[in-house]
Amino acid sequence: MATQFEPSLDLREQIARIDKTLEEIAKTRVEVRKISAEVEFLPRSMIFQAMLATAALLGAGAAIAKLFFP
Questions:
Q1: N or C end of the chain: which has fewer CB within 10 A?
Q2: Residue 4 domain-assigned?
């Protein structure tokens, strides 16, 4: 004769909580993917700032070189 396992209320409550948590995680994943799709990896302003910084460093290097090697 096979015995059947009858889950207790506590077990059912835990399973319900786990299912609810899994649903919340799935919703959070969808939101994160939506937000990450909107964000650019390198915004144009950052590229422009990098170009300005490079130009400033090259200019400073040229000025120092001119001072020491006239």
A1: N
A2: no
